[in-house]
């Protein structure tokens, strides 16, 4: 861009991050839009091992997944944002309660983040003129954790989640890929150290080694992405009373001692999502499911998948009750 020198880029980047904070994002970082060569090799090995299970969409558009210029022609920068969703409400500890992952207690994060990313994009256009770019929130083949790591917003932990030193890992990630040159922020070190709490706590052994997740064993994958009733019995028995997602590897992570309450009211828990008994979820019919989870992430599992999850959780609770001595 004519007259857009290094100092102007620095000023723009600082102002962009300030605007991101004003819009409610908890962190914003920038990386250069270039091929993810190292990450591509790891992704290819992960796919060849079959760890993605039935998420066949992860095999498609591989070239776009590793190269942002295939998604946005002329892309120069990837702007990554984090949005905290943590709510200071505890999961109901009763085993008879259907446990839903904390990120799905409020409104669908796709809509909330996209709305704010569009506002940030409009702000950027107001500063520099016409911008060619796109906003992404789990909506295209974008390796969001890889870009957030490259932009210095955190490191990929042993549980394969992005971890931020200031806020832990209870946050959503979004991106703007744009043709505006901006000074990149460098990555930060890995601060997991010798800790293996996430690996030790995973009931299904989905973390087959540090930094490697076998999604086929992951409770989040089994309750959300996996379709059908062919979940192996030995995994069903370890799913406990989780009926959508799983927070175990985040709950045990020491870095989440720095978590704090979200400022976004749309992420606060909807009535009943943290504490509804399984037997009440079992009574839910299709129309009630649609009403209850309208504009909510739980709808991703679809009615049949949700009922399957509730059925498995009830079997686990009843089995454990029979095995508990009086």
What is the structure about, briefly put?
The protein has 326 residues and is an alpha+beta fold. It has twelve helices and ten strands.
Description of the molecule:
- With 326 residues, the chain is of the alpha+beta class.
- It has two domains: 6-178, no CATH class; 197-250 and 273-321, no CATH class.
- Helices cover 35% and strands 12% of the residues.
- It contains twelve helices and ten strands.
- The chain has helices at residues 6-22, 37-48, 62-66, 109-128, 144-150, 197-201, 219-225, 233-236, 248-251, 278-282, 286-292, 302-323; strands at 27-32, 77-84, 99-100, 133-136, 155-156, 162-163, 171-178, 207-209, 212-213, 242-244.
- A four-stranded antiparallel beta sheet has the order 1-2-7-4, sandwiched between helices.
- Helix 1 runs antiparallel to helix 4 (109-128).
- The longest helix is centred in the C-terminal third of the chain and has 22 residues, at 302-323.
- The N and C termini lie far apart (75 Å).
- The relative contact order is 0.17.
- The mean pLDDT is 95.
What percent strand? 5-15%
Spatially, the strands of the biggest sheet line up as: 1-2-7-4
Number of E-state strands? 10
Shape: globular
Subcellular location: Cytoplasm
Enzyme class: oxidoreductase
Binding site for [4Fe-4S] cluster 2: 202, 218, 246, 249
Binding site for cob(II)alamin: 65, 138, 159, 162, 173, 220, 246-247
Keywords:
326 residues; four-stranded antiparallel β-sheet; two-stranded parallel sheet
């Amino acid at each position: 861009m004519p007259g857009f020198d290094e100092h102007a880029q620095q000023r723009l980047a600082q102002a962009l991050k300030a605007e991101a904070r004003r819009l409610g994002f908890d962190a914003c970082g920038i990386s250069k839009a270039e091929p993810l060569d190292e990450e591509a090799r790891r992704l290819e090995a992960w796919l060849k091992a079959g760890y993605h299970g039935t998420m066949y969409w992860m095999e498609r558009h591989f070239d776009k997944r590793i190269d942002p210029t295939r998604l946005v022609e002329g892309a120069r920068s990837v702007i990554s944002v984090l949005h905290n969703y943590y709510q200071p409400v505890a999961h109901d500890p009763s085993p008879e309660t259907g446990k839903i992952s904390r990120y799905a207690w409020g409104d669908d994060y796709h809509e909330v983040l996209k709305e704010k990313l569009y506002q940030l994009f409009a702000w950027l256009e107001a500063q520099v003129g016409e911008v060619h770019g796109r906003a992404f929130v789990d909506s295209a083949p974008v390796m969001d954790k890889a870009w957030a790591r490259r932009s210095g917003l955190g490191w990929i932990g042993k549980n394969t989640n992005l971890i931020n030193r200031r806020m832990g890992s209870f946050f959503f990630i979004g991106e703007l890929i744009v043709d505006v040159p901006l000074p990149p922020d460098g990555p930060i070190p890995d601060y997991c150290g010798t800790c293996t709490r996430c690996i030790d706590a995973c009931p299904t052994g989905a973390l087959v080694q540090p930094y490697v997740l076998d999604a086929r064993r992951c409770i989040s994958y089994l309750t959300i992405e996996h379709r059908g009733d062919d979940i192996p019995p030995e995994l069903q028995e370890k799913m406990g009373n989780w009926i959508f997602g799983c927070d175990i590897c985040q709950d045990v992570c020491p870095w989440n001692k720095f978590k704090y309450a979200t400022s976004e009211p749309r992420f606060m828990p909807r009535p009943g999502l943290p504490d509804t008994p399984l037997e009440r979820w079992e009574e839910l019919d299709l129309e009630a499911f649609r009403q209850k989870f309208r504009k909510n992430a739980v709808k991703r599992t679809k009615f049949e998948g949700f009922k399957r999850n509730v059925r498995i959780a009830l079997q686990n609770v009843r089995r454990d009750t029979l095995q508990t001595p009086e």
